[in-house]
Write a structure and sequence with these properties.
This protein has helices at residues 24-41, 60-68, 99-114, 129-132, 149-155, 158-180; strands spanning 2-7, 18-19, 22-23, 45-48, 73-80, 90-94, 120-125, 138-145. It has a six-stranded mixed sheet, sandwiched between helices. Strands 2-3 form a two-stranded antiparallel sheet. The longest helix has 23 residues, at 158-180. The chain is an alpha/beta fold. The chain is built from six helices and eight strands; from the N terminus they run βββαβαββαβαβαα. 43% of the residues lie in helices and 23% in strands. β2 and β3 form a beta hairpin.
């Protein structure tokens, strides 16, 4: 299976959420690379939308990379933030009316929630550009809240990031198995 993984945000030009010296862009990239290694190790063909910091935080080109590569799946990695430090958990978004996207989101969410590092906020629908503009099943994953001490204990650690990447890879495997059934 050919999988395009998008590390959300771009780096210094647009770091995304920031907390405790950690930027969302850097965290997203770290988890993206780990996930890519897991998936490649399982025999998948992995394409990245970025492999380092970039000066462009546009959205259309991210979908274009996946579409031009004729990827089978698109996964965008993000981290949440909230005004309240009590907000925590994982959630996965899919495009409304995308049957494949919903199935992918459900598989990813089930395995993230099963990793038991934070609360399950469920699968949600959204009209995000990277979900709307991709030609294949797509999901946007919020791996936790940078503003939550509980989530940050996992997000900021190498072991926690590995746990997240393994859970996401297991979610991709579950999706692939459901497609083969």
């Amino acid at each position: 299976m050919r999988i395009c993984i998008d590390a959300g945000h771009s780096g210094p030009a647009e770091p995304g959420a920031c907390s405790g010296g950690l930027t969302e862009a850097a965290l997203n990239l770290d988890v993206t690379i780990l996930l890519g290694r897991e998936l490649a190790g399982q025999g998948h063909d992995v394409i990245y939308t970025r492999a380092g910091d970039i000066a462009d935080d546009g959205l259309a080109w991210r979908a274009d990379i996946a579409n031009e590569a004729q990827a089978d799946l698109f996964i965008s990695i993000h981290a949440n933030a909230a005004v309240s430090s009590a907000a925590h958990g994982v959630e996965v978004y899919c495009y409304p009316a995308s049957i494949g996207g919903r199935k992918l989101a459900e598989c990813l969410q089930a395995h993230l929630a099963g990793a038991a590092y934070t609360v399950d906020r469920g699968v949600k629908e959204a009209d995000f550009a990277v979900l709307r503009m991709t030609d294949m099943p797509a999901a946007l994953v919020e791996i936790g809240f940078l503003t939550s001490a509980e989530d940050m204990a996992i997000l900021a650690s190498a072991a926690g990031q590995e746990k997240i990447a393994r859970a996401l890879a297991a979610g991709v495997d579950a999706y692939a198995a459901s497609e083969d059934a």
